[in-house]
Structure formats: C-alpha cells, structure tokens
Write a structure and sequence with these properties.
By secondary structure, the protein is of the alpha+beta class. It has 27 helices and 25 strands.
C-alpha cells in the first residue's frame, strides 16, 4: 500500500464561523450590480422617496447609497449587519406573503465581509444621526453622533478587496461591471414610481457627472421618459391585456381546463412593431413580477418571438409588470432573487401571446390599402393595372359584337359578349372584390382619361383568341371586328391585327423551321473532319516507379507513427453536423497548417481538394475568398464621414454618452464624428456632426446605438455595426472568386494560404462553410 492509502481518513468537522461567513458572502454578492441593487432595495423598503447613488471610479473606490427613508432605530444597530437578521419575516411561513425586496438578512452582512462598510442613519423618532462602523463579521465596532437628516447612508469602500482573485477581475472588467450595474439600476428606476433616483459618478479628481436621474413621478411612462428620453416614448404603446384565444390555449395544452380568472394582471409598455422604432439589441427590456425586477426567460423569449413576427430585424422596448397573488410566486430561488417560479405559467404565456398578437394585428402598425378604382378627371390616382384597364374597357362598352357572333337567351348581343367575359376575368384574376362592376364605371365613358395607356395595357393582358376560346367562341370572319378598343382615329386593335403582331414577334424570336421545309443546316454536320494527332514519346521506368513508391510508403509510416492514434474527424458533411465539423476543424487545424496543404485539384469548378498528411479536405473557393476579403475590409477600411449641416442631438442616456466618449476612436473609424460638451446636461452632451456614407449605403443613429451596446459588453474592442458588416460582406462577395471559375494550381494555393492569415476561416460572412474534411486515406486503405 502507498503512503497515501495508509493515512487515516480525515475526521469530518464543522467549518469555523468566520470561514463560513466569508464563503457564503461571496455567493450572495457577486458583482457591482448586486451590491448596488441590495442597497437600493433596502432604501425603497424603508419607504424612501429620494435615493441618491454616488460612485467613485465606476465603483472601484467607493459606492454610497443615501436615502430619506425611515432610518434605523437605535435598538437595531447591533443586529443591522448580522447574518440572517431581518425585520421582514419571523418564520418560514411568512415567506409566502412577503412583499418587500429583501427578506433574508444577508446583504449587509455579506457586504461587511467583502468591503469596508459604514452606516450613517437617523430614525424618524431621533433628532440627531449616528455613524456606525462594522468589522468583517458584521459586528458593530464604533458608534458616534453624526449630523444627518432622517434617512440612511451606507458606504462601501474597496469592494471585493478581501477576495484577491475576484478583486483583480473586478478592476480589470470594471467598465463591463459598471454597464451591467446601470442596466440593473434602470429597472428599479422604471418600476419605482414616486421615488426620485439619482446616480452620479466621479472619475479620479474630475467633475462628478450625472449618470441617470428620475423625477419621482407616479407614472411608469414618465420614468421611462426621464431615463431614455422623449424619443423613446414616441414609439411605445400601452399593453392591452385580453383573454387567451382558443387556438393559443390549445397550443399550451389549456383546452378543457378550468382556468382561474384574473390570476394575472399585466401592465406596462412595449414598442410599436414598425421598422425603425425597435432596438438593435435587447438592452431595454425590463420584466417585473409584483414590481420586483426579474429575468423570466420564457416570458422574454415569447415577447421577442411575437415581435419578430411583425418586425423581424429588431427587438422591442419592453417594460411589463405582472401582478399575481403572492402565494402563487416563489422568489426564494437564487441569491439575487431574479429567477422566480410561477404557478400557472402556461396561462401567463397564453395571455401574453394573445394580447401581443391582438395589439400588433389590429391597429397600430397595419396599413390598410384601398384597392377601389378611382378615376379623377383625365388622370389616374395610381398607376393603371392591366386587368383593371381591361375591365374599364368592358364596362365602357368598347366591345361591339354583331348579332350572329354570340347570343344568349334574354340578352342583347353586346350584353351576351361582355357579361360572361367580364365575370370570367374577375373570377380568374381574383379582383372581383376590388372593382365595382355594377355601378359606376360605365358612367365614366365620356371622360377622355388616358385611353392609349388603357388599351395598351389591355392588349398585353391576354390574346383575344385565347380569351374568346375560354367561352367556346369561334372567331369567324365577319364585317365588323369582334373586339374593338376605340382609342382614336389611328389606333384600332382588332384580334387579327394582334394575332399577326404576336406571330411576327414569335417568329422573330424562335425562328422554328416549318415542317416539310428543306433542312439548310444538315450540310454542317455531314462534312468529313480530319483530325491530326501529335504524338510525344514519354520516358517511363518501372524500376524508378517502384523505388519512388517504396520511399513514399516509408515516409508515410514514419508520419503515422508520430500522429495521434485516434480518429480526429467524425462529423459528416451535412447541415446537422455543421457545428461539430467546425469544432473539429478548430481543434485539429492550426493556421500554419494551411501553408503545408498540398493542392490535389479542383472539383466541379467550385471546390479545391487539398491534402494534409493523410487527410483530404474540400475547400469552397468562393466562400474562403469571400471570408478573406471580408476580414481585410473589416480591418483596413476607414469609412469617410459626411458632415451634417446642423449638429443632431442624439438624446443618449448618461451611460451611453459615457461609453461613446470613452470609445470615440472606434466611432471615428466607423465614420462617425461628434461634438462633445461634457458640461452640458445629461442627454445633451453628445451631438452628431458627421455620418458615414459609402456609395448607396447610409447610416444613422440606430447604428450608433448598436455600437454602444457592443462596446458596453467589450469596451475598447474594435467592432462594426451590423449594417457596416453587411456592406462589407456584399462587397467581399462581389469581388471574390466565383463558383464556375477554373483556377490554376498557384491560384488555388493562394486561396488556401489566405485561410491561415485570417482570424476565423471556418465560414463566410453569410454563414456558408468554407472547409470540410473529406476522408482519411489511411482509414480508406485499411478498409
């Protein structure tokens, strides 16, 4: 037995309280957003109507939350920051009816373990405030009088300093942490009606800038306007709740069940579905259950799916509050309380889907087109339709039929010809509901209109012979033309004239020889052709060939011995295996291997067959060249800007303004230029003075918002708006080698080498694979 096995098993012992406290605290407060959230929730639970958040260096050095709530009573000073000490509940049964944001008694205790925490508070029954200082375990170490009006101020310094690894990551990703914190704070600003929330930030010794501010309005709509500006309000519509339809209830398996009435009451606002009023990302979507911000993934997915049915290229602004009985909700699921379990969740989804479909289908975004024919004076109200033009001719009685032509009992000859023809055309082309055939159009016969246009369009609709043939009418010779479109003294189109025109056109286009005519082309194929072949002697030696084959076998055996003994490529060439095939290529093929690939040849004038050791690969010549050209455009193209006559105010939020200012160089490379006034009020600090233009492509504020969203997730990383990428992808596609182009070996080698010079060579900008593994020659030879 080894020494390790000989050692006695360690005894199971309890972890000391300090270690437990520190381990658990790191699980409760995970980020800057969580820390600020917990302090803001405490302020709102205390009945505050004014909450002020102050940050220094984006929260790295200082986080301070001050309110005008009820304050902390002196008897609660000691238990204020102790673990699991709370005034919100006494036993587990109280959890069912809890209505406050906090209830576990963990937040302040955890923040003591992760930072230097101090509190200044003044209860509504006190005349002077008190400053409290706590140690890492949450025990009160100092207390002293301190001037303070009613309310509480909690100060955190050096957040996460007790966890070295997390503290380092926190400092390294502070801009991303800061952006996430602002998004979480915005959710509380939207739902907290009657509460004025202000957030400011100070970088170094610079000026303190306002990040966001609400006015304390009792309206959610006013809070949205204060955060995102009046432009956002213009695109919003109030949510209108209806009962789920039978079809949707069936989709969710709710048919035949007795559903509770008025279990869910949904209120709030969503974006209109018109293109251009949505968002390029889901950065402004806020969901609440009983006014508690949360992340209901199924609800969020459903809202976006319904919106994409009407606006497939954008995402909606969403601010929805779902009111439900507290006993039907479980909020005690995750430490941050953002994951929530609901009873009757399928019913909620059915209500949401039915309501959103009804909102978007009935009113706001649907354009009703009037297809009724209108003639005004001598001009059309809209471009004439050939079918409508023909019907005008019919109703205007421009068809003259002699009595022997066609006869129906009880009708005149003209009625007999016009009526069934008119009815058939209307039924055949499906416009019977769009044209009034009984009233009106015959009264317009005296108008001059545009008769030449009418007759030309009518003549293009169908051959007169074919129309008459539908009714079994034979176009026999007679004195008058069967159909006469009266246009003027020089424009008469009869069936015979039209038939001659079409036959002439057909003969000019096809030139088909008549049956029985002499074949004038047969001589071209019967002549004797003599072929002169040139021969060239070729030197060949079986001994040399055998020697070369032996050397290749020896070399291959040595290579096999050095290769890993497993099958590296298992994915098949089919759409379902695209992701696994790409993962295998990323794992097994490095960039320097493309230079080592041997060109075998070109397949079907579209694919390059290459060989790397014993593996054969197929490379799409167009897709790989397109990806190379695309990445070159991405890296090296600087878009030129077009100056605006008047600077445009973008009405960006404070955090968006900050992201833009900090990444101004990236915006300039994308062709945007701005006028920045840091002393101006929030939402007025940045004005657009130049927009990128490139041939037929134009860009605008929506592209700026998309860039801001991308940079909030990856600050300082060069990126392009999606429309710029589309433009580059289109250009790269047009300038790349096309399928059907024959390539020389050197040209194929150049394309393969280029794959090793780009960041992501596995698929083109449009998603088509560039390369797939064909076969392993060793496996084939063994089989």
């Amino acid at each position: 037995m080894t020494d390790t096995c000989a050692e006695p098993a360690s005894a199971i012992k309890a972890i000391d309280k300090q270690s437990v406290h520190q381990i658990c605290s790191g699980q409760v407060v995970l980020s800057l957003a969580t820390a600020v959230k917990e302090l803001v929730e405490n302020s709102i639970d205390a009945g505050a109507t004014n909450v002020d958040i102050r940050l220094k260096d984006n929260g790295v050095d200082l986080v301070e939350v001050s309110d005008n709530g009820r304050g902390v009573e002196e008897d609660n000073f000691v238990g204020l920051t102790l673990k699991h000490h709370t005034s919100k509940l006494r036993d587990f049964s109280d959890l069912t009816h809890v209505e406050t944001f906090g209830f576990r008694g963990e937040a302040l205790s955890s923040l003591c373990a992760l930072s230097d925490l101090s509190v200044v508070t003044c209860h509504e029954s006190s005349h002077v405030g008190t400053r409290l200082v706590f140690d890492r375990s949450g025990r009160l170490t100092q207390r002293a009088p301190h001037p303070r009006q009613q309310g509480t101020t909690v100060t955190l310094q050096q957040l996460f300093s007790t966890l070295p690894v997390r503290h380092k990551e926190f400092q390294r990703n502070i801009k991303k942490e800061y952006s996430k914190m602002i998004h979480v704070l915005q959710s509380y600003c939207v739902i907290s009606t009657g509460v004025r929330v202000t957030c400011t930030n100070q970088i170094g010794q610079g000026k303190r800038s306002t990040v966001l501010c609400t006015s304390g309005s009792p309206s959610m709509r006013d809070n949205i306007g204060a955060l995102f500006g009046p432009k956002q309000l213009q695109s919003l519509i109030p949510f209108q709740q209806i009962s789920p339809t039978d079809n949707i209830k069936e989709d969710y398996g709710l048919n035949g069940e007795e559903l509770p009435k008025d279990l869910f009451i949904i209120s709030g606002y969503v974006s209109q579905a018109d293109h251009g009023v949505g968002r390029s990302a889901t950065d402004r979507q806020f969901f609440f259950i009983n006014k508690r911000p949360c992340d209901p993934s199924k609800v969020s997915k459903l809202v976006n799916e319904v919106y994409h049915m009407f606006n497939r290229h954008q995402y909606p602004f969403v601010a929805l509050n779902i009111s439900v009985a507290s006993e039907c909700v479980d909020v005690n699921v995750t430490p941050d309380k953002r994951q929530i379990f609901l009873q009757e969740e399928k019913l909620l989804l059915a209500i949401l889907k039915s309501s959103l479909l009804a909102m978007y289908e009935t009113g706001v975004n649907k354009i009703t087109l009037n297809h009724k024919l209108q003639l005004s004076g001598s001009m059309y109200a809209s471009p004439p339709n050939p079918l409508v033009s023909t019907i005008i001719l019919l109703n205007s009685e421009k068809i003259n039929c002699p009595k022997p032509f066609l006869s129906f009992p009880g009708r005149t000859a003209s009625e007999s010809a016009v009526s069934p023809l008119k009815t058939s055309l209307l039924n055949k082309y499906g416009h019977s509901s769009d044209v009034d055939t009984d009233s009106g159009l015959s009264e317009q016969r005296s108008t001059t209109g545009t008769p030449e246009t009418l007759c030309e369009n009518a003549s293009k609709l169908a051959s007169p012979d074919s129309v008459l043939d539908e009714f079994g009418v034979k176009n026999e010779p007679h004195n008058e033309p069967a159909v006469k479109a009266v246009v003027g003294p020089e424009r008469i189109f009869s069936p015979e004239a039209k038939k001659r025109r079409w036959e002439n056109t057909l003969s000019e286009q096809t030139q088909v020889p008549c049956p029985g005519a002499p074949d004038t082309t047969s001589g071209l194929f019967d002549r004797h052709v003599s072929v002169h072949k040139k021969t060239q002697p070729l030197q060949f030696s079986m001994t040399q060939l055998a020697s070369r084959m032996e050397r290749l076998k020896t070399q291959r055996r040595e290579e096999i011995d050095q290769e890993p003994k497993y099958r590296r490529f298992r994915a098949q060439i089919k759409p379902g295996d695209n992701q696994s095939a790409e993962d295998e290529l990323k794992k097994e093929i490095s960039k320097d291997m493309f230079k080592q690939m041997e060109i075998i040849g070109q397949f079907n004038l579209g694919f390059i067959i290459t060989k790397l050791k014993s593996d054969l690969f197929m490379i799409d010549q167009h897709a790989t060249d397109e990806k190379y050209n695309f990445e070159m455009l991405q890296q090296h193209t600087i878009l030129n800007g077009q100056r605006l006559i008047v600077p445009q105010n973008l009405e960006l939020t404070a955090v968006s303004e900050t992201i833009l200012i900090e990444n101004i160089d990236i915006f300039k490379k994308n062709g945007f230029d701005f006028l920045i006034d840091e002393d101006a009020p929030v939402m007025e600090r940045v004005k657009l003075v130049s927009l990128p233009t490139s041939k037929s492509w134009t860009f605008g504020p929506s592209d700026i918002e998309e860039l801001i969203f991308m940079l909030s997730d990856g600050p300082g990383v060069m990126c392009r708006p999606s429309r710029v990428r589309q433009m580059f992808a289109s250009r790269a596609c047009r300038r790349s080698v096309m399928i059907g182009t024959a390539l020389s070996v050197s040209e194929m080698k150049k394309l393969v080498v280029h794959m090793g010079e780009i960041e992501q060579p596995w698929n083109c900008p449009h998603g088509r694979p560039t390369m797939r593994h064909l076969a392993n020659l060793d496996i084939i030879s063994q089989d």
